[in-house]
Amino acid sequence: MFKVKDPEKALKAIALFRYALAALFLLLALFRPEKLLFGGLALLALLMARSGYCPLVRR
């Protein structure tokens, strides 16, 4: 676990990164033949961003 000065700010930055990953995976699902794989990864990234789960940041 990492100790940070402002855990809420760190969690918001991580969530923003995960939303960007979800968008990237959705774009890849549109243009690549592995639609199910990238769709599943996009769903996972979106769920992780929405839940705010991050075991590395100590609150």
From TrEMBL:
Highest taxon of the lineage: Bacteria
Keywords, in A-Z order? Membrane, Transmembrane, Transmembrane helix
Q: Where are the transmembrane segments?
A: 12-31, 37-56
**The protein, known as:** DUF2892 domain-containing protein
- Annotated organism of origin: Thermus arciformis
Q: What is the lineage of its organism?
A: Bacteria, Thermotogati, Deinococcota, Deinococci, Thermales
